[in-house]
Task: inverse folding
């Protein structure tokens, strides 16, 4: 493990600073090592950093604890993913509340092309089990990575169905990598490491706590192109995951259930309030994400790239410039950044797509093709 990585871990251990302040410190200082090298006067010029925080950074002995964490990760053949790393999940990087550090174990590709979260009640019915297994089977031809929370019920059913279907599956944990919760899922977790992986923002040794589960749910939502709630009570963690998914502009589906059944209430409520589309078959998910469409692999300057024949208007040029600055943007973000009303924006985007200048992505996002 590099010295910079040790300092990154150490930075997350300084009392009184969280993800937002860590990003501030990194933006002003350039590296975690330089944060610790900075003088109190320099640190206190950074917004949000006062005398107490600068003193904690300068005088709190966190290096030894960081080295212990690094040693534990080494024994587990696990890694620490800082938000500036190329290996950090790209789907999380642009989220306002993404963790600055993740700990990962296994062979999973955290930037897989297609990802789907399956979440639901811890007390799954036979109906919920069948639906979950059918969804996983429906994703098999498309090589979708299945994400869930390793909990009882729908979560563990989704992970085990993925293992059986030989699909990669990632368990997002509300504890350290060395604290499998619930412990009865230890064997499944070990199998997942060989075919997918485990992921958490909590360093080794951290035990599950009630406050950590909602935080875990935001990572599940953020990692996913789409979230499917299979069964849910009127109040449950899966509804929190769905709420995060909506906030992150992810597609959300809910499986309808029988009226007045406890574990149908949450799903039916999501559908009624237009916070989720109704799920009827795996085809619904595949169509929503365009996974049944052939991938476009043309690259800038390739022989297959068509010439530009379209003369851009001022608004079109503005949108193309915005998309060139980002890997992709959601239509809501495009509207906000460009100040173009949604109705006209949709028409302009359609014109650019017909011209082959941009392409639509799952989740109402857009990306420049070759300009």
Result:
């Amino acid at each position: 493990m590099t010295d910079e990585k040790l300092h990154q871990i150490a930075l997350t251990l300084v009392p009184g600073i969280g993800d937002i302040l860590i990003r501030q410190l990194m933006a002003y200082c350039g590296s975690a090592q330089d944060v610790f090298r900075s003088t109190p006067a320099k640190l206190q010029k950074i917004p949000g950093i006062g005398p107490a925080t600068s003193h904690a950074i300068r005088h709190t002995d966190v290096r030894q604890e960081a080295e212990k964490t690094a040693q534990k990760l080494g024994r587990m053949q696990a890694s620490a993913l800082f938000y500036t790393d190329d290996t950090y999940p790209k789907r999380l990087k642009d989220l306002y509340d993404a963790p600055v550090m993740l700990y990962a174990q296994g062979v999973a590709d955290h930037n897989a092309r297609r990802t789907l979260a399956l979440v639901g009640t811890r007390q799954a019915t036979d109906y919920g089990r069948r639906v979950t297994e059918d969804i996983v089977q429906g994703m098999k031809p498309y090589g979708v990575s299945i994400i869930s929370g390793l909990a009882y019920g729908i979560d563990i059913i989704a992970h085990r169905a993925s293992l059986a279907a030989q699909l990669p599956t990632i368990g997002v944990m509300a504890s350290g990598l060395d604290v499998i919760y619930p412990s009865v899922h230890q064997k499944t977790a070990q199998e997942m490491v060989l075919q997918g992986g485990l992921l958490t923002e909590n360093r080794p040794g951290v035990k599950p706590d009630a406050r950590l589960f909602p935080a875990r749910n935001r990572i599940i939502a953020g990692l996913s192109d789409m979230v499917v709630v299979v069964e849910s009570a009127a109040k449950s963690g899966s509804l929190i995951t769905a709420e995060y998914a909506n906030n992150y502009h992810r597609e959300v589906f809910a499986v309808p259930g029988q009226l007045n059944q406890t574990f149908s209430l949450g799903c039916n409520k999501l559908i009624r309030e237009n916070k989720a589309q109704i799920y009827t078959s795996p085809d619904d998910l595949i169509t929503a994400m365009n996974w049944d469409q052939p991938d476009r692999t043309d690259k800038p300057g390739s022989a297959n790239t068509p010439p530009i024949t379209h003369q851009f208007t001022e608004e079109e040029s503005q949108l193309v410039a915005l998309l060139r600055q980002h890997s992709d943007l959601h239509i809501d973000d495009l509207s906000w950044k460009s100040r173009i009303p949604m109705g006209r924006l949709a028409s302009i985007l359609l014109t650019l797509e017909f011209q082959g200048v941009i392409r639509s992505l799952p989740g109402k996002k857009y990306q420049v093709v070759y300009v």
